[in-house]
Amino acid sequence: xxxxxxxxxxxxxxxxxxxxxxxxxxxxxxxxxxxxxxxxxxxxxxxxxxxxxxxxxxxxxxxxxxxxxxxxxxxxxxxxxxxxxxxxxxxxxxxxxxxxxxxxxxxxxxxxxxxxxxxxxxxxxxxxxxxxxxxxxxxxxxxxxxxxxxxxxxxxxxxxxxxxxxxxxxxxxxxxxxxxxxxxxxxxxxxxxxxxxxxxxxxxxxxxxxxxxxxxxxxxxxxxxxxxxxxxxxxxxxxxxxxxxxxxxxxxxxxxxxxxxxxxxxxxxxxxxxxxxxxxxxxxxxxxxxxxxxxxxxxxxxxxxxxxxxxxxxxxxxxxxxxxxxxxxxxxxxxxxxxxxxxx
Length: 344
Fold this sequence. Notes:
With 344 residues, the chain is mostly beta strands. The protein folds into three domains: 24-126, Immunoglobulin-like; 130-200, Sandwich (Immunoglobulin-like); 227-339. Helix content is 7%, strand content 52%. The protein has two helices and 26 strands. It has helices at 2-18, 50-55; strands at residues 28-33, 36-37, 42-48, 60-64, 71-79, 83-90, 102-109, 117-126, 130-133, 138-139, 144-150, 158-161, 164-173, 183-188, 195-203, 206-207, 212-216, 227-232, 238-240, 242-248, 251-258, 264-270, 279-287, 290-302, 310-320, 329-339. Strands 9, 10, 11, 12, 13, 14, 15, 16 and 17 form a nine-stranded mixed beta sheet that branches. Strands 1-3-6-5-4-7-8-2 form an eight-stranded mixed beta sheet.
């Protein structure tokens, strides 16, 4: 067998030296993995590539789809008689035509003149990023926070905190397998007004579905003034500068009012913990359509940007006070309240 291979190699070299094109040789692709790829993913392709190995000619690998001349470009890292290792080098994707979720045919091509093309039976998908975890649920501006995601892409992805782009410091695999394990994307929290913000991830292929919630506090951006901000499920956001607090027996009460006639109102009552952890709370929300009280609620104090203010965060599931059969709504928010009466 070794004599035959050496003879084929010698014959191929002679034909190339004489400028005589060699007849196309058979190729075959039997399988590949993984089935979802993004920029930088390494693909393991199984098949019959023995003739190319004998001729020492590197195969060409690309992804094609009907109806478009665009191709997914691969860089061949290594190949043997039965295996090709190729890395996704470039995926055609734009803001208006993202590649996330599109399927492609995998093609292996012989580089020889008139060389054969082998196409896999299965298709592969160009996948956008997928969020996995945001371990830090709260942070201060300029703090470095890790975000875990699948398929963020080899190039630096984009992290959005609210509508503001965060500075990405590092993006690398969190485990041994860069294709199967989540990646750790470290970013610096932008300077934002205190409150809860959605954290989103996107790359050149598209945006990850969903978002994580991050509480940002300790910033003086927006001024050291009282305000309350809340996200109310299925309703317009709550944002007001009319926000005060008062002492209760063993706790505090925060009250916020929005609108000329206080059409929308929010109150939070709880006993803060010494360690600053979330504690059970009584929360009430009202607007023009009705009022809601807590089914499950919690609140905590956080460092305020000014000694004149009391700052905190709250989370609640609220039930209608009128129709107990109505679906509950979820509320999360932040406040920095001024005393309801000047201190003595």
